[in-house]
Write the structure tokens for this entry.
Amino acid sequence: MAATPRVRGTRSEASEQRRRRRVWSYLVLVGLAVFFLFPLVFMFVSSLKPDGQILSDISGWRAFLPVGDVGLDNYGAVFDRVPVGRFLLNSLLVTVAIVGLGLVVNSMAGFALSRLRWRGRGLVLGVVIATLIVPFETIAVPLVYWVAHLPTLLFQDGALVYDIGWLNSYKVQIIPFVANAFSIFLFSQYFSTIPTSLDEAARIDGAGWFTIYRRIVVPLSGPAFATVAILTFLPAWNQYLWPTMVVQDEKLRPVMVGMQYFFQDNPAWGEIMAYTSMITLPVLVVFLAFQRAFVSSVAASGVKG
């Protein structure tokens, strides 16, 4: 009878310790979140200030506060200098095409490498993984040469015309980035965790490999598809080097290439911050809208893979 209060006291002390650890964990996470949000806050706040005030406030906390001479003049100046709407539309088109086509192509390649049995499968997978160590900058110039000599078909006056070269087009910004070695490897690893007995049962029922891929493997691989889509979206949206090399027509340029418009003469820092805020907002909206899917997909892929 005398031991009961002691047990209760021990339990309450353990519960209090867990509560304190949880509080400290939350405080640390909030501190880290605030620290990493500083650049974004500075960017959005500076987009509301003229250049002189940005430079005068940069040495203190006023740089992170919307105080002083604030307004939306920088955003109006951005539209006067850069065709923002056209650039956003181009980036949206290119990004959606890369992500959509990449999910189909890379998942089918991963399916062939993980579910089918054919000679040389391991060697092909090894070569795919080996390409991950090759920086894109090392192959950019040879790739420009090849796309400049590839055949293409154009519509002119209602007729198909044969021509040479993919420069200044949407396809030169999309097709080279559809196949992705990391996406193929991720799909291959995830598909290999799905029991092969499902394939055997489907084959007995007369299903072909494409039917197995479409009706069995794809519905069971939602986390892998979500992970690849999210990890493909950001680099596709942030493309700068490749469009700068292959696109000279202003009507086809993506948003990141538009940054160079602000550094041709004297940099207008307020307009630069306004432009970067505008091209960052779509990424933030996508992340906030799919935050739960992003966390769950990465966690599930890590457990399954």
Remarks:
- The longest strand covers residues 151-156.
